[in-house]
Amino acid sequence: MIITESMGIMDYSLLDSGAGEKLERFGDYTLIRPCSQAIWSKDASKAELWKNAHASFNRKQGLNWQGRDRLPSNWVIQINSVHMKLSTTDFGHIGIFPETIQLWDAIQAKIKTANAKRTQPLKFLNLFAYSGGATMAAAHAGAHCCHVDASKGMVQWARDNAEINGLSEHPIRWIVDDVNKFLQREIRRGHRYDGILLDPPSFGRGKSGELYKIEHAMLETIDNVKRVLSDPFAFVYLTSHTPGLTPTVLSNLLKKMGKNGNITSGEMLLISTDTDSTQAQTLNIPNGTWACLDNV
To answer: For the segment 212-260, what is each residue's pLDDT rounded down to a tens digit?
Structure first.
């Protein structure tokens, strides 16, 4: 299935949160999932929304879905120009981290600005790339992309998203590998990238079982990223879901790269986009941090 590009459509919204949970809309389906940040109370006026959710996931006694059978095996949502295939996983993930949506928009804007000044399309590198939302956004903006993740299954999921987005023939390299090993090879080969996004996990495993612990591996990753940046480069985004890695910490890591450019930072947020007046008081939820070294 291929869906044509369209702008201004948002098939995601945060409907409510509280008591350690969040209620989200993904297209035609509403899901309840854990949210440790939501220490406030739920909105009493939205009790029916919670009651009528299609499915819920919790970790109270293991990893448990309730109502999973009421969901299709997979479905597609649209976020502006990007289409994403969603499916429930045993760990509660569904193939998208909605807090990164604003990041996709920012990356698209930077790529379009940079490409307007260039004779060759911007080369975009997406590290720890998951199901490829940022890769799809960058490709739609005209970048040539390289998508790297240690999980073969997630790279295949991203390739499925590329097909859904009509990008099967777009210049995208699909790499299943440990990020630092991949970067070291690219350094030796002299390959360079104009825009880079990296979202390192707190803890992960590489393609061959390599251990990635952010407090030990991050500095090596940052150094490798510095060495594969083109001169001049366009941007580097660093994001994190690791507690303690504040916007200031991420900014300091980018400063240590020793590259000229403007550094900005902030929180990634889950936000409501529904226009119904009953949703006007929905509270935004911080869910990660970001920093950007911008040279566009």
So the answer is: 566 678 889 999 999 999 999 999 999 999 988 999 999 999 999 999 9
Please give the model's pTM, rounded to 2 decimal places: 0.92
* Statement: 98-294 belongs to CATH 3.40.50.150: yes
* Identical topology for domains 12-86 and 98-294: no
The fold of the 12-86 domain, in CATH, is Immunoglobulin-like (2.60.40)
Which residues lie below 8 Å from residue 288, measured CB to CB, with a gap of 6+?
97, 99, 100, 239, 240, 241, 267, 268
Phi-psi category of residue 254: left, alpha or beta, with phi > 0 → left and psi -120 to 50 → alpha: alpha
List b or e across 141-180, with b for residues whose CB sees 16 or more CB atoms inside 10 angstroms: bbbbbbbbbbbeebbebbbbbbebbebeebebebbbbbbb
